[in-house]
Write a structure and sequence with these properties.
heterodimer; A: 615 residues; mainly alpha; 3-stranded mixed sheet; 23 helices; globular; B: 257 residues; alpha/beta; Rossmann fold; 2 domains; 6-stranded mixed sheet; 4-stranded antiparallel sheet; 10 strands; membrane (chain A); ABC_tran_2 (chain A)
Chain lengths: 615, 257
């Protein structure tokens, strides 16, 4: 093939101005964002729409509640309340801004490409800063612009007041983003590059918990309407609120209060001050970040799997290196070791992966938070629940959690699924190794929680022992179900490695687990006789089968209930047989099916963006 | 007249107390394909990153078309192209959009961009999928997109880091032809590679880096004379110079015994 290439340039092309380069890079960034939105699956867009509606609903309900209470308060208290809102907003901006800055700067894939291009580095960072500012947009709207807007509407302020709202909002927005960028500069130094994805996962999970808790606020306020009066609480905090005047968030509220009190010039002074400080901080942050990258405080080489540490290790290792020898290739073949060692190797590999990837830890944080929520409700809620209800909820959760953790097992292999498929361990060593790794941390956590909760709420010692032993069997049973669905439906998304299972399979696993609990409940009812049910059964007339599905079902339930009226010895004997039989059938049945699939081989489906990649 | 387009003088990179590249002096002239060889961890990628301005040298200087990459980066970069070993591209841009972006960044006149982009897409067999997002491309297709983007602004100097990794034989041949055509037109081509066969067939001169030091440079024939092994392959010379020949002899003895 004849290759036609234009001759190389003889001299550099004419330089472009900073502004031209900035616009060019910004247009590219907008194109990337637009393409991202355009190629998002429809369900993700629907989800985002739903979330937006939820956020708006919360803002409106909190706004109505808060501003309703403010009508009766003194101007000083209202000013303090505004300061508090601005402070929370600034905190939110710093938190989400750090995430935004971390993603835009440290985890960015395009910096190498842009640094190579003949554009000034300042223009590259100017666009990156715009991206970071954009990531704070929603927080700034919710906590910097909307409070001012609502405040103006509440006190029927004139049009000029909204200029102050705009200036204060912009100042707080710039300030929050600038502080986030400055903190991120330190974060980028502290976090080693190979753990950057974990760090972002950690920040994301923390953000998720904060958002989840904030979604509870309207509900909590509605439940405690008679007890919690925002107005009187604010009046009690007068001293603390007055201190806020000395901080930038206090300046913002001073500006708005002055604006509403017809003192526009006073308000303008405060709002210009906050804007000036915001812009100044932003410029300092921008220059430090740009200099940080340019002078090597944060260098691109740090994004290459921690080269600095590697280089030092290599130097230390030089003296220890021996001359290469291939003699081992001539050694006799050793006899194969026990498959138990293989099983332990599989378990150890998974346990190490869980230990070293902090994103794995969040899986264990969720039940802790949920359980704390239940225990909190039990201890502090006005609506009292019984011990048995709380313990039932915890046991149910133990089962579901164990199943869910086992569900992640085979997807953890990711793109390395070839390894477990190619080693001579397929079958029970792999599956039992996976079970061991899934169940060990789960069991430790669940035992601690169950026993701890039982002790905290004063459950009898016999029941505590029964719970501890029962949890082991329940976890094993539901984990075996989880493993079966994991080996058949595992997937891996390099961008979000936590998504390791097809959603449909996850749902099925929960349904099967519920069925497992239902069947176990029959056997457990024979063992632990519910007196209310027995007295109800005694009053029931005899049921006979009259043909048809419904009659068959009723007759079946009737037959199942008969052993409850037997003598204790026979009833307990049957209880042990039924409970043990159901547990063994489920556990060994699902384990056998998983082992069979392991012998046939398993494949982790790789998901990239919205496309499924076949290998 | 053959002019020097890539020149380094005492180029050094240190991480803490560890020197990764030690006082590198080399020159690559117009019309020359220079092969940069060395075992893993020898400092090849670090050198390329210093030449492209992605890393600041600890000492020394690097000149591209007589522009100091540290002092006149915009001029140097506008005459140079870089093809990394792991092409990181905008996943959410199509190949065509990406080529247009690179053209704009390198200030290619608007009236020629469209035609040249289509020519390059056609040359690398990307035209049919040019409007698909890059995130769906395979490694070799991404590599071809990077190569196309490296050629769009008519660079005077092109630096390639392991460019043949992941390419099928046809694409590797195409790359070789493109680089030879560029050299024929007067560009300087700097290729870092592990594949010594490619280096031997394609490069006019090679440089061998070991532990950050340039231990030899010259044409394959000059290197043969230097080690006194006339008629041997570049692979043998490389193993001899980098001290890896013990391994080769061990393997040979295993094969025999």
């Amino acid at each position: 093939m004849k290759i036609l290439l234009p001759p190389p340039l003889e001299s550099p092309p004419q330089e472009q101005s900073f502004w031209q380069n900035f616009i060019l890079l910004l247009r590219n960034q907008l194109q990337v964002s637009w393409n991202k939105l355009r190629h998002r699956p429809a369900r993700a867009l629907i989800g985002m729409g739903g979330l937006l509606i939820g956020v708006i609903a919360i803002v409106v309900s909190l706004g109505i509640y808060a501003y309703g209470s403010l009508r009766t308060l003194s101007p000083d208290t209202v000013q303090g309340f505004l300061s508090m809102l601005f402070m929370v907003g600034l905190g939110g901006q710093i938190f989400f801004g750090i995430t935004g800055a971390f993603v835009a700067l440290y985890m960015s894939d395009d910096l190498e490409l842009l640094f190579m291009a003949p554009v000034p580095i300042k223009a590259v960072f100017a666009v990156k800063s715009v991206v970071i500012i954009g990531s704070n947009f929603l927080t700034a709207v919710l906590f910097a612009f909307l409070p001012g807007l609502f405040y103006g509407l509440l006190f029927q302020a004139g049009a000029s007041f909204y200029i102050l709202v705009l200036l204060v909002g912009l100042g707080l927005w710039a300030m929050g983003t600038a502080i986030a960028e400055l903190i991120n500069l330190l974060v980028m130094r502290v976090i080693p590059p190979h753990r950057s994805k974990e760090a972002i996962g950690f920040i994301g999970a923390l953000g998720g918990i904060i958002i989840a808790l904030s979604f509870q606020l309207p509900n909590m306020l509605m439940n405690s309407r008679n007890k919690f009066d925002l107005g009187s609480w604010l009046e009690q905090q007068k001293q603390m609120l007055s201190v806020m005047k000395f901080f930038p968030w206090g300046w913002g509220s001073s500006a708005l209060v002055a604006g509403v009190s017809q003192n526009f010039l006073g308000g303008l002074g405060w709002s210009l001050l906050i804007l000036l400080v915001g812009v100044l901080l932003f410029l300092i942050a921008f220059n430090l970040v740009e200099k940080g990258f340019r002078r090597g405080f944060i260098s691109l080489s740090q994004g290459e799997r921690g080269k600095r540490r590697k280089a030092q290790t290599e130097e230390r290792g030089v003296k220890l290196q021996k001359a290469p020898s291939l003699a081992m290739l001539k050694q006799d073949v050793a006899a194969p070791a026990s498959p138990w060692l293989g099983m332990w190797a599989v378990a150890k590999k998974d346990l190490l992966s869980m230990k070293r990837d902090t994103r794995e830890w969040f899986g264990y944080l969720v039940p802790l938070i949920i359980m704390l929520f239940f225990i909190g409700q039990f201890l502090f809620s006005s609506v009292k629940t019984s011990h048995s209800t709380l313990m039932t909820v915890l046991i149910m959760y133990t089962i579901m959690f164990s199943g869910n953790m086992a569900l992640q097992s085979f997807g953890r292999e990711g793109e390395s699924d070839w390894l477990l498929n190619s080693v001579p361990l397929a079958g029970w060593p792999v599956v039992w190794g996976k079970l061991l790794a899934a169940i060990l941390p789960t069991l430790v956590l669940m035992e601690v929680l169950l026993v701890g909760t039982a002790l905290a709420i004063g459950v009898s010692k016999t029941l505590i022992v029964a719970l501890a032993v029962g949890a082991v069997f329940l976890s094993l049973g539901s984990s075996s179900i989880g493993l079966f669905y994991s080996i058949n439906n595992c997937r891996y998304n390099p961008d979000t490695p936590q998504q390791r299972i097809a959603p449909g399979a996850s749902l099925f696993m929960y349904l099967i687990n519920l069925f497992f609990i239902l069947l176990l409940a029959v056997g457990l009812t024979y063992l632990f006789l519910p007196s209310e049910l027995v007295s109800a059964l005694r009053d029931l007339p005899a049921v006979t089968y009259k043909g048809g599905l419904l009659s068959g079902l009723i007759y079946g339930i009737y037959l199942l209930s008969r052993p409850l009226l037997w003598s204790t010895a026979w009833r307990v004997f049957l209880g042990v047989i039924v409970t043990g039989g159901i547990w063994a059938a489920m556990f060994f049945g699902f384990m056998a099916a998983t082992v069979r699939q392991s012998r046939k081989g398993f494949r982790v489906e790789i998901i990239a963006g919205r496309k499924k990649r076949s290998r | 007249m053959e002019s020097v387009l890539i020149k380094t003088h005492g180029l050094t990179k240190r991480y803490g107390s560890v020197s990764v590249v030690k006082g590198l002096d080399l020159e690559v002239k117009s019309g020359e394909i220079f092969g940069f060889l060395g075992p893993n961890g020898a400092g090849k990628t670090t050198t390329i990153k210093m030449l492209t301005g992605l890393l600041d040298p600890s000492e020394g200087e690097a000149l591209i078309c007589n522009y100091d990459i540290s002092k006149q980066p915009a001029q140097a970069k506008s005459l140079m192209a870089y093809v990394p070993d792991q092409p990181k591209l905008y996943g959410k841009l199509s190949a065509r959009e990406f080529l247009h972006l690179i053209s704009a960044l390198y200030r290619v006149p608007k009236d020629v961009v469209k035609e040249r982009a289509e020519q390059l897409l056609n040359l690398f067999g990307l035209q049919e999928r040019a409007d698909e997002l890059l995130e769906g491309y395979s490694h070799s297709m991404r590599q071809k997109v990077v190569l196309a983007s490296a050629l769009i602004h008519q660079p005077k100097v092109i630096l390639l880091d392991e460019p043949t990794v992941g390419l099928d034989p046809g694409s590797a041949r195409l790359l070789k032809d493109v680089l030879q055509e560029m050299a024929r037109q007067g560009a300087a081509v700097f290729v870092s590679t592990h594949i010594l066969e490619i280096a031997e067939r394609m490069c006019h001169r090679v440089g061998i880096l070991k532990d950050g030091l340039l231990i030899a440079q010259g044409s394959p024939e000059e290197l043969r004379q230097k080690v006194g092994r006339e008629g041997e392959s570049l692979e043998d010379i490389f193993l001899e110079l980098t001290g890896s020949h013990e391994n080769a002899e061990l393997i040979k003895s295993l094969e025999e015994g």
